[in-house]
Amino acid sequence: MPRGDKSSYTDKQKRQAAHIEKSERDAGKSEKIAERIAWATVNKQDGGGKKSSSRKSH
């Protein structure tokens, strides 16, 4: 998967990133910075793209 490829993210994560990006743009950030902030926030909250369901929690 090339860098910047968002295909492994869920629809919910993509919607969250779009909402955050819009908020950052409204706050006066550039498009590039707003996108970086949005995806960094989604990654921090969820740990990245889709998770494997094979993990077991004890």
From TrEMBL:
Renumbered residue ranges of the record's region Disordered: 1-32
Query: What highest taxon heads this organism's lineage?
Result: Bacteria
* Name of the protein: Transcriptional regulator
